């Protein structure tokens, strides 16, 4: 019995190894990709369906890839840090041989005949495509009742967030070290905050969206979810096709601008407000220079974002809606219907607003290195909040503006409210993803706030 328990605990721990740790044990022969994929598949079987994070398991294909990767590494054919590393893919991204379901019932899931460009890049790097992950329907703000919401690994009575909740949950739960999500108004960073992991929305256009079903073509981003900044950086390298490098973490002399509109919002719970205050103190203690930043346009960022996302999403869904409107969840359908009636002048004015907002935010980087906000104004709720909140910003309080501006933005674990994680969001200058990641590494080291769920 003790031997069996030891084996179980070891497999449990395998799921929480970092990319670097997995690479080390692969190359010294103490573990193989087959061991890791087998442990991941067993963990899926144990945690599903109560977690409800996984839409489709690529069991046979993943084991085949793992066997091939093990043979390659044994024969010293080494493709780099992702060789033999399991990666989960959000179920609106095409993966050859796997059905794409979009979290919907408008159409039956159809097997993809080709990989999305980002998946091709991962395969070329030797990554193992482990599974497809659940999402809010078409990434548009509601879980279809036939699919259900993905539950939080820290408390399965609460949501993991959306729309990339499945991707965040499989990483937080130790099923896979890495996952890919999409972000149109916070859909990577919000679930990352709720689940206590790292979620990065890169600069707009850095990661290709070929083979990724769109929600809003001028707001959509694709990015990594991981348990550390370093792992997120490694995945971003291969998603983007661009090299990144991290040096030793340091905040000495880094100037951090705290966005007053987010930090002083009345929507922050007392725990989130206190967590932000304590996080800032820790950053100052590690050498950061902190100053408040006031950007009046932030007060309109999310309302203007909705004027863009609604008609763009409705255009994307025009044919699907005509085919089978009853296949949508009622709230998704009502959002699509609302988008058909958005006035063209309002849409164009919102596009003009986003340019002014980008210029206003970008101007701050002459005086600061990074902008800081609470990732979400509250910890994970029981259910996913409504996409729109009359008179409130809701969970998009801090996140939506960076989709409007296209600037890179990352959520990091910053502490706990009881047993529920909280997050700190950092936003960098346009196309300065490398600088943002380096500062995030320093913040991560200063806060040391990652907490493994008891699951």
From TrEMBL:
This is Indoleacetamide hydrolase. It comes from Rhizobium calliandrae. Hydrolyzes indole-3-acetamide (IAM) into indole-3-acetic acid (IAA). Residues 35-437 form the Amidase domain. It holds the Pfam family Amidase. InterPro entries: Amidase, Amidase_CS, Amidase_dom, AS_sf. It comes from the Bacteria.
